[in-house]
Amino acid sequence: WWHVMRDLNDYLARVSFMLRQGEPVNDVALYAPYHDAWASFTLGRVSLSQAVGARLSGPLIPRLLEAGYNFDLVDDRVITELARVEKGRLAVARHGYSIVLLPNVERIPAATLRRLREFVRAGGILVATGRLPASAPGLVNREAETREIAALVRELFQGPEPRAHFIADEGVELGRALARLKRPDVVFSPASDVLGFVHRSTPSAEIYFLANTGNRAVSVKADFRVAGRRPEWWDPFTGEVTVATSEARTASGTVVALDLEPYGSRLLVFPSSPTPGAKAALQRPTPILLPIDLSSDWEVSFEQTGRRVRMETLRSWTEDPATRHYSGRATYRKSFRLAEEFLMKDVRLKLDLGQAKPLQPGRARAYRTWLEPPVREAAEVFVNGKRAGSLWRPPYEMDISGLLRPGENRLEIIVSNLMINRMAGEPLPDYTALKARYGERFQPQDLENLQPLPSGLLGPVRLVPY
User: What is the pTM of this model?
Assistant: First the structure.
């Protein structure tokens, strides 16, 4: 991966820079049920993070995100000491929450619930799911506080016209109920459980980072809670800014078509004034030229060993006993001729290295993508001696129009794989002498029965007019 790290780091730097701008826009303050978690401790089971996580592991958070709301966790100190109650908001520093959510909470201090009553009286939205609070935590003054909590719950949630809201079934009712109370920040249509977003707000722009966490492409309409501004795509991979086409505009929002490849991401920005130099969204004519197949007759040289082979058809390095355990880089070279009609003014050409295939998700010991890519693992592309860029994530394609010429063209693709192939072909390390001197300080992990992984350029490779 090291030879494509410049491009990968550029992507990370651009996204990191944008997500440091302004302030987060999270509508919901999700109350962390610490007191219920502490009450559940038993002998040998005293992890607060695990106990809180178990209480929030149901459908609540997925339904909350799918409904178009982001959240922060808050506790009693945030609510009673750090927050200010403003018009319809629970303000912490420069950020404010319009919704406070109590997730199946049984125990809560009376002081916290009193502050939430103040928040509701100021126009804030208080929602309890699953059950209503019923008791005070701890032992000190517990009976008196529990009576006060009962009175506060009756005032807020019960009676003919309750000012707070109770949702019995968070898995079914939460999204619809919240949408009636406050317009979501983003609504995806059709709804998707693999799409997520981060919203940052600055005085000059509304910034949305959008991500597909699934292994299949997604095409939706995204309705953003931003009105009166022209949206722009800020490409985190290239740095280019392109005007986004709005599908619809209303008094309260803007609808944009969103197409995301597997595990893909985008930056959509709503600047207060158009960005100078932003490219117009081009509506290209339907191409009449057919793709050119480049999948055959490649000369491949393996950098670490000097081995050269000719591949009539693309295949994994592991299919050849001589390169089955090879780890490193290999260069694919090929020449092809291009007719002049492929370089006409209205024709663009992209190099397509193949489609990634989704895999059935299963269990994994570490984070991984459930995708079979056509390049294992990263590729760097040169056209007629000039670097075109790198391909290390879907879609495995790039525009190379400006580097092509009529007649003979030279294509070079440098591909690197993972170290596991080399490790699979070597004996396990012998730690006998090390342990004899220092003792057994560690346990080697995941080193037995290693198998080489598919490697190289798998294709099919095409030059596609668009």
Answer: 0.91
